[in-house]
């Protein structure tokens, strides 16, 4: 349930906002990482393929949000809009590749490139909903941060599988996310309750999605067959 004390004067201080946000997201993030650590090789490959499709679709959604923040220049001071836009691009560099050599999608594809994986899930059912221009900004950011947590956890699980270290010390850019949310809140353009609700919703959704993948593989005794496009 949303914490109704996270409004008004409670979060006028950015440091307190940051601490409370990290506290609220920590448990669900840790639980998802624990799940990713516990699944086997085939299950991880199946989840990785699904995540790769989502990471691809997520990029266009991120660019639409960047434009949405830039368009706030009509209602906010230029320096505020500029800061929002720059911080969002910095926070999403692992999606767009602006400040990093390897993106989420590139590493996920690399992780399964030589493996036999079959598609079982249409990521379009999730990604456009999160980044819809009709979604309140709080829900957009809550879902976005949840997906970043998910993609990062899957990349790290694959890094361990491949005995690589590149992703193991990477964390979400909570400073940039905090700056964006705090600025939007101060200008009454964001509800922290929306952020929290959407973060929790997406984490629960993706956790169920991982369990569904595990059950499907267990029932079939191996990677599930690809769906027939004619029947969808």
Description of the molecule:
The protein has 232 residues and is mainly alpha-helical. 66% of the residues lie in helices and 0% in strands. The protein is built from nine helices and no strands. The chain has helices at residues 14-38, 41-70, 78-91, 93-96, 104-112, 127-130, 137-161, 174-186, 192-220. The protein is globular, with a radius of gyration of 18 Å. The two termini are 35 Å apart. The model is unreliable at 1-12 and 222-232 (pLDDT under 50).
What labels describe this entry?
single chain, mainly alpha, disordered C terminus, 9 helices, 0% strand, 232 residues
Q: What's the β-strand tally?
A: 0
Distance between the termini: 35 Å
Order of helices and strands: HHHHHHHHH
Q: Percent helix among the residues?
A: 55-70%
Global morphology: globular
What does the average pLDDT come to? Answer: 83
- How much strand? under 5%
Instruction: Provide the structure class.
Output: mainly alpha
Give the C-alpha Rg. Answer: 18 Å
Uncertain regions spanning at least 5 consecutive residues? 1-12, 222-232
Q: What oligomeric arrangement do these chains adopt?
A: single chain
Q: How many helical stretches?
A: 9
Mind describing the biggest β-sheet? none
